Amino acid sequence: MTAIKHSAMANAIRALSMDAIQKANSGHPGMPMGMADVATVLFTKFMKFDPSKPEWPDRDRFVLSAGHGSMLLYSILHLTGYKDMSLAQIKNFRQFGSKTAGHPEYGHAAGIETTTGPLGQGLANAVGMALAERMAAARHGKQLVDHHTYVIAGDGCLMEGISHEAISLAGHLGLGKLIVLFDDNQISIDGPTDLTVSDDQLRRFQASGWDTQSVDGHDPAAVEKAIAAAQKTDTPSLIACRTVIGYGAPTKAGSAATHGAPLGDAEIAGAREKLGWDAKPFVIPKDILKAWRDAGKRGEKPRKAWETRLKKKSVDARREFKEFLDADLPQDFDKIVASYKKKLSKDAPKIATRAASQKALEVLTAAVPAMVGGSADLTGSNLTQTGIMPPVTAKDASGRYIYYGVREHGMAAAMNGIALHGGFIPYGGTFLVFTDYCRPSIRLSALMEQRVIYVMTHDSIGLGEDGPTHQPVEHVAALRAIPNVTVLRPCDAVETTEAWQIALENTTGPSVLALSRQGLPTLRTKHSARNLSAKGGYVLQEAEVGPRQVTLMATGSEVELAVNARAMLEKKKIGTAVVSMPSMELFAKQPAKYRDSVLGDGTVRVAVEAGIRQCWDQWLCPDGGFVGMDSFGASAPANELYEHFGITADAVTKQAMSILKARAKRGK
Amino acid sequence: MTAIKHSAMANAIRALSMDAIQKANSGHPGMPMGMADVATVLFTKFMKFDPSKPEWPDRDRFVLSAGHGSMLLYSILHLTGYKDMSLAQIKNFRQFGSKTAGHPEYGHAAGIETTTGPLGQGLANAVGMALAERMAAARHGKQLVDHHTYVIAGDGCLMEGISHEAISLAGHLGLGKLIVLFDDNQISIDGPTDLTVSDDQLRRFQASGWDTQSVDGHDPAAVEKAIAAAQKTDTPSLIACRTVIGYGAPTKAGSAATHGAPLGDAEIAGAREKLGWDAKPFVIPKDILKAWRDAGKRGEKPRKAWETRLKKKSVDARREFKEFLDADLPQDFDKIVASYKKKLSKDAPKIATRAASQKALEVLTAAVPAMVGGSADLTGSNLTQTGIMPPVTAKDASGRYIYYGVREHGMAAAMNGIALHGGFIPYGGTFLVFTDYCRPSIRLSALMEQRVIYVMTHDSIGLGEDGPTHQPVEHVAALRAIPNVTVLRPCDAVETTEAWQIALENTTGPSVLALSRQGLPTLRTKHSARNLSAKGGYVLQEAEVGPRQVTLMATGSEVELAVNARAMLEKKKIGTAVVSMPSMELFAKQPAKYRDSVLGDGTVRVAVEAGIRQCWDQWLCPDGGFVGMDSFGASAPANELYEHFGITADAVTKQAMSILKARAKRGK
Questions:
Q1: What architecture is the A6-305 domain classified under in CATH?
Q2: B556 dihedral zone (left: phi>0; alpha: psi -120 to 50; beta)
Q3: What is the DSSP string of A385-454?
Q4: Contact between A498 and A509 (Cβ < 8 Å)
Q5: Spatial separation of the C-alpha atoms in residues A404 and A128, rounded to whole Å
Q6: Does B172 sit within 8 Å of A98, measured CB to CB?
Q7: In A223-281, where do the E strands start and end?
Q8: Signed CA dihedral, A558, A564, A568, A569: sign only
Q9: How far is CA A302 from the centre of its chain?
Q10: pLDDT for B3 beyond 60
């Protein structure tokens, strides 16, 4: 391709971007215009992809970590011929219902590999994708798995703390097929980057074991040479591309003004002149479009060759590969779970739910090969590793356990990347209190509807002496608040197993398992093959001494307290039921009839949870009672804390009695 | 001091640590034992402090970022003679009510400069403290302000993403009096660090402009030389101290086993032998204790000299300095605020609350010199800078505005450090959705009861096209969930001003201001000198056409919707009140009588907020209605989103009518 041709192709990106943003009167033109040359080289010379088969498993992955530059991605998807990305979509940029959201949204259009926008996330997703590629290649061989992961990231992404975790992890794991193109334009929102940052990025990446290069981002030959060199290294690669933000804008190029606002008609007209682009808005000259479409067709041949290689594999190998891609649960999954639950109900162990989780994992990881686990340096505490899970290392990616290091946020974002890549069901652990560190990624798991499982242990004051900085008080409530996150707080080994089943079957979103540090008795001694936790809440023990007058609701470690309180109340001849509510989201989804029958219409309701009241009001009637926390915890042995904060069976009983009394007084 | 003496002094730390942890049967002995030599050198040769005057403003600050090693700090405080830290406290390590919590808690004992535990936080606090020192020195001169900030951080702190933000910011701002001692023991919880990380830490710090050294952490002369050299540089300094974790433990030293569990009696006995320490548990030999107490007395002379220098200053300068330390609001603060509110009620501007916030800041920053502001690269969006706030730079720290860069988490933690240092009231901004990035630090602001103000703009789907990754839906609820955080979501310019007053007067905790991107009409056209928002909720408009039948509750941008719905209902002759509830926490604190009068006993209640329902149930009766969000947002212009998600005055009106109808049916 001649030099002119390249610039024309790059300008097609620039034109579409500035025009779409102008039409929407909203958007970020600077980055697409600045990185158009780099992106053109990447997609016309290197990216292995086939717009006619966007789901081709062995395609290269492209992540736009600087998600605000979404028009860059949309332009490329349109130009290379993705059917989803029609001109109409481009014209409807940032409008309701379009596939072209302000920031790229996974699931909206083929070719969008992950949802970005919140800075640094995409880069960390890409680490997960590159890791998944290596794990997949170790299992199925290079003939079937051999693709790169490319990222475009900006100054913002690289200032974010999560970038450190991502870079460090990638370097440690030697993810040699990860290539990051850094939009080195020295501009951020507040102005020139030297207002806020002086980091030597190349040195920083080198410190984490990456190879680095710096090129003129507007010199396609140099960019091409750099990417080719990066492909050859067995370390992850950084290519800093020195660019001019808003390249082509006659007066605004190089300034923060182009970062996040439409250029304006005058500037756009000036850009057309400066770039030598005279086509009308949204019109791509035939020959330039053809050149782009041809670039998109480059992938057809390698894709067909790959399909041929797959076809030539044995029947078994093909089946295995398909099963790998599907990451389905085994046919007899229900049976496996039920059988294990039956044993638990019989053995009735007293066991912390974090330990029960590990035991369940022994069964599940054996039954579900797609599961890959890990922990952010708390393996021995989270109990996330099982006997059949050797670690994944830089030398050997055939394992199933990832030591993520003290990188909760990087871990969560990498897990998103692993899930998005396909072929794996990732789960990872830390302390529940540290969900605060990775919350942005948990939110994205939910937004992207990815099956990522968060194993969050040490879930309350029950952890004891580590004190208030480590004791969750509001975390379960705060996680319940995120749309599409299923929070499960099981009360014993049986519910823990059910929680895992729910999480594994939840193919449209993440699940958080909140597990205890301390030992808990098995309450589900009566075996039920059905997954009772799947209804979110159910009657664990019905009233016996008479019609139900009181309904006690609890989750996790406090269900035991409710059971004890029930015993006290029943002794006083007050018919009392205990409702275990391992998941409020699931309970809320049940038909009202079911919920009412569980909650007991007209009964006195008291909830108990070693956390805040915030989410309980929806289940408590006006005179409902709550026993829980309304402050931070404290550093002391767990039993003393439960006493001190008044979270006891006694307190629950007292509340119930007090409400009954008040009702009697009112003549109810 | 002879070499023997040093090791004896260091062993005093080791002994107290291992014995206290053993007694508590809980704790982390490895780090205190590993860093005892370094800490001894630091506190006996360099740290400028006076245990008899722990609040001496010009003391050096010591931050134990690796907070799990709390016994290191407690040992030193006891040995150097802090009255708070008696032997009884040491013996009561991790017991209820002791000052010696599992992780150091600010406010529990003198000498604890910040609460740590969650990794990386302390390091980032220290950046704030060092920055505060420079800003204070720029204002009051080196004679009064000249102290260092020392940090002990471990591998965990340095793996955390927040460490990158902290290091990068410190390097950029040239915080030359910040010295980080890295406990380079190559062990983390899951095992040797090479399981998870391969970073060249020194190179990494160099990339951010720090000077670096690496020393044998058990060679006091080398450590001393390194600290002395670090003090001379005008860049922040890293000293990597190669140590053996659990140094002295005969079989467990150097292994992860010493990280987070008591050593056990046998190992402790072995350590006593190996270290040559034969004193009984909690007994410090007289001569060694005296050496430590003498070290503690080192600070008396410089402290007295400082007091003399202060006394010699002019009356004005002394008053200024005292006012600086107190960081009080001016005497006529109420008047200033009321006067400004009066003008607003008269002018009744239509203005986004983020812009109203900026205008209020123009008034407030002029009246309150202690305020220092900033933003995480969103100055033009958060509108946090005023005309009298020049930036703080590496060359000139006399300014009042900090460009934090894309470092939300580092910013929040630094603000904690600035507040803890004293002399300043820090506020900083980002998008509300990115509170998720800095949540751990917000939580610590609350736990430490620090006056840190979070200016969080773009607070709902009202921000429009940037889409669901940027649109808060659950964030206000999630922030309300954190104990001691005051969340304020003002409805107009007047409430915004009141919110600022509340935040500035809140000396015992952080406040979050949730502000709109879009313009909002002034609803408080009737001036009130009193701060109505301070009650958390109040009747904005009472029923007029008859007795109140319906109570509409709302916050922020939705109060306007409620007002419009009220108009529709009143037109139907249904007496309707509008309650503005800018802060649920403050409302919850009011006497029940007030709250009931505001909420209208027996009235139909409908709440409207462009967020989730989770925290509203406490104010809604069983048949209460809610208009809001129960999913993520979408990318489109704001007005279309409000329509699409059904958050309209119409919807509110319909709900109210429907409930009234249902009640009529029930014969209520």
A1: 3-Layer(aba) Sandwich (3.40)
A2: left
A3: --TT-PBP-SS----SEEE--S-HHHHHHHHHHHHHHSS-EEEEEEEGGGHHHHHHHHHHHHHTT---EE
A4: no
A5: 11
A6: no
A7: 237-242
A8: positive
A9: 31
A10: no
Q: Is residue B200 marked as binding? A: no
Architecture category of domain A533-667 in CATH: 3-Layer(aba) Sandwich (3.40)
Tokens, residue B530: 């009193």
CA dist B591 → B60, B535, B616 (Å): 44, 10, 18
Q: What phi, psi does A580 have (nearest 5°)?
A: -95, 130
| Token duo for residue A91 | 């014209």
Domain segments of chain B as ranges: 6-305, 332-521, 533-667
pLDDT digits (tens, 9 = 90+) for B355-384: 999 999 999 999 999 999 999 999 999 999
The minimal CB distance from A483 to the residues B27, B161, B631 is found for B631
Judged by phi (left if over 0) then psi (alpha if -120 to 50, else beta), residue A366 lies in: alpha
A335-341, long-range: CB < 8 A, 24+ apart: A336/A363, A336/A364, A336/A367, A337/A497, A337/A498, A337/A500, A337/A501, A337/A531, A338/A529, A340/A497, A341/A494, A341/A497, A341/A498, A341/A524, A341/A527, A341/A528, A341/A529
pTM: 0.98
CA distance linking residue B73 with residue B78, whole number of Å: 9
Terminal CA-CA length for chain B: 86
What is the distance between the alpha carbons of residues B152 and B168, in angstroms, rounded to a whole number? 18
**Encoding tokens for residue B213?**
């050294």
Which pLDDT value is given to residue B4? 57
- CB-CB contact of B113 with B45 (8 Å): no
Of A434, A436, A371, residue with least CA distance to A406: A434
Determine, for residues B465 and A636 on separate chains, whether the beta-carbon distance falls below 8 Å: no
Q: Sorting pLDDT into bands at 50, 70 and 90, what band is B616?
A: very high
Residue keyed to tokens 């699409």: B644
B221-254 per-position pLDDT tens digit = 999 999 999 999 999 999 999 999 999 999 999 9
Nearest to B168 by CA among B197, B205, B136: B205
State the DSSP string of A83-127: TTS-HHHHHTTTSTT-S--SS--TTTSTT--S---STTHHHHHHH
**CA–CA separation, A239 and A214 (whole Å):** 6
Strand bridging mode A211-216 / A237-242: parallel
Q: Which of B161, B613, B618 sits opposite A409 (nearest CB)?
A: B161
* Contact assignment for B103 to A469 by CB distance below 8 Å: yes
CATH number, domain B332-521, options 3.40.50.10490, 3.40.30.10, 3.40.50.970, 3.40.50.800: 3.40.50.970
The candidate with the shortest Cα–Cα distance to B259, out of B21, B497, B449, is: B21
Whole-number Å distance between alpha carbons of B461 and B585: 23
Q: Phi and psi for A86 in degrees, rounded to 5?
A: -75, 170
Query: Residue A651, by phi and psi: left (phi above 0), alpha (psi -120 to 50) or beta?
Result: alpha
Q: How confident is the model at residue A190 (pLDDT cuts 50, 70, 90)?
A: confident
Do A332-521 and A6-305 have the same topology in CATH?
A: yes
Residue of A nearest to B159 (CA): A406
Is-contact B523 B563, C-beta < 8 A?
yes
pLDDT, tens digit (0-9, with 9 covering 90-100), for A292-348:
999 999 999 999 999 999 999 999 999 999 999 999 999 999 999 999 999 999 999
Chain B residues touching residue A482 (CB < 8 angstroms): 474, 478
Best mutation target among B182, B206, B635, B639 (most A Cβ atoms within 10 Å) is B635
Q: Could you count the other beta carbons within 10 Å of the beta carbon of residue A322?
A: 12
Decide if A159 and B168 are in contact by the 8 Å CB cutoff.
yes
Find where tokens 């926390």 sit.
A629
